[in-house]
Amino acid sequence: MPLSLRHLLCACCTAFALWPCANAQIGAYPVALGPAPIGYMDTVIVVAGQRYEQFGYSGPAPLFIGIWHPLSNASVHRTPLTWRELRERTLSGPLRKTYDELLLRMDSSLVEYDIRYPINSDEPLDYGPGGPSAVKEAMLDLPTRCVRAPVEGKSTHPVIVYHHGSQGLSDENLWMAEYFVSRGYVFITSNFHWPLEHAMYGTPLAWRPDAASVSTMIDLARSLSTTDSVFYIGHSWGAQEGWCLLHEQGLAQAFVSLETTLEWKTDTMEIKDKWPHVHEALRTKRYPMPILMVADTENGPPFAPFTAARGRITQADPVLDFDHESYTSAYLMRHVLNERFPQPDSATMESQLSIYRAMLALIDDWFATVRHHAPFPAESSSRTFQIVPTP
């Protein structure tokens, strides 16, 4: 069961615990969806000031956008898209080539980070004939719960901008997208990587926080809704970008930071060396919106690098071990195929999925608090502590 809202308001910088919910069994689909039918459309916009020249394309860097949105017409009866169909786009020329190259790199990353290895082991999984590639193809053929439908005019719903992690996928959290859209949100994602010849996937166009892409996505979010509610969710590098950029007033109404990988670090020099932009932001910026941090601190000092962050911060720490990739549905999808491709870490993966469900419920409750303008604790830099709820 999700944490209650009264817990969310109990103290500034309080650490909450997530736990697998025994009542979260939802039948055939991995996450419990709300009542709203889900539409999906794609589009392309470009980032002014961000130059990209590869594979015959020359111009502002293209963002390949995915938009999940509640359908007002509940009588729409279409066959839900598969994950593979979600990626199909009508493009031509250099944009087509760029997108195809992006998909190749996304697929390689999907195999390497989400399929090839069991949790907490460097020994590859034995999937039998076809290996990890067969699992990837089966995952892409899994049905979603959304249908292709255009956005018709401005929505009256709040909008969530999702930013993936380093070497992540634009559609890595489609279960999260469906969960929130079915509950009355618009959810938008994009690539924040571009394919580069002779460079590892994830190599940035410039070695600095990508303010241009983030602000472009936030501008798009505001153009889609009549409300003032734009929420930002980032995972890993996507969360780091949030800490680097969301200090400006009016960008986002709320910020959810999903495990930046700094949360359990204690060596200040290491943080400054490896994450200089995040380190500088935490020391010098003030965040005007409420922030929810979710991270497994691995029994270390809880969220130590963030004790100096100035803002209204709520912290949540899973009770059980929670893998860094488990914040994404892309990582959890192979578990759905366990009967077809037996996996020795199946029990652990079920635990990860249970925590993922509880995390979605927690974020949903927290967003409700933000949307209803409930009072958050005043800004504070007090030491954090953990609350372990009773199921």
Structure description:
The chain has 391 residues and is of the alpha/beta class. It has a single domain (5-387), classed as Rossmann fold. It contains eleven helices and eleven strands. The protein has an eleven-stranded mixed beta sheet with strand order 4-2-3-6-5-7-8-9-10-1-11, with helices on both faces. A hairpin with a 2-residue loop joins strand 2 (38-54) and strand 3 (57-70). It is globular. The protein starts with a helix and ends with a strand.
Secondary structure category: alpha/beta
Give unreliable regions as ranges: 1-16, 19-27, 380-391
CA-CA gap between termini: 7 Å
Overall 3D geometry?
A: globular
Q: What do the pLDDT scores average to?
A: 88
Q: Report the top-level CATH class.
A: Alpha Beta
CATH superfamily: Alpha/Beta hydrolase fold, catalytic domain
The beta-strand count equals 11
Number of helices: 11
**What share of residues is helical?**
25-40%
Shape-level CATH architecture: 3-Layer(aba) Sandwich
Q: Order of strands across the biggest sheet?
A: 4-2-3-6-5-7-8-9-10-1-11
Could you name the key traits of this structure?
disordered C terminus, alpha/beta, 11-stranded mixed sheet, globular, Rossmann fold, 11 helices, single chain
